[in-house]
Model the fold of this input.
Amino acid sequence: MHSTTDNTDKRKLLSALCHGSIFLSATVVSILVPIAIWFVAEDAVVKANAKEALNFHFNVWLYGLLLVPLSFITFGLAGGIWWLVHWGLTIWAIFQCLSIPDQAVRYPFIFRLL
Done:
């Protein structure tokens, strides 16, 4: 029988991995992490975090497509601000997963496709 601490630690790890995978967003592999966790996890909070991480991936890519051309006009400012925002939100999400493991993270200001 698993202890509550083991389940909480597993929840923290899997949830943080889902959100942390965005640090590899330049690779297609990054989205495979939350997809795999979403399909194999049995924990409802982990599944919710995986789904939210997938939605955040889509948003990062969408805004990236919009802001890269704009960065040429703004001398990199638009892309730099988005880079800081998406990394900042990712760090915040990981911190939330580790601090409040019984609650799924909800990113502010994103479109949710899933």
The CA atoms of residues 67 and 79 lie 6 Å apart. Helices lie at 4-20, 29-40, 44-73, 77-99. The radius of gyration is 15 Å.
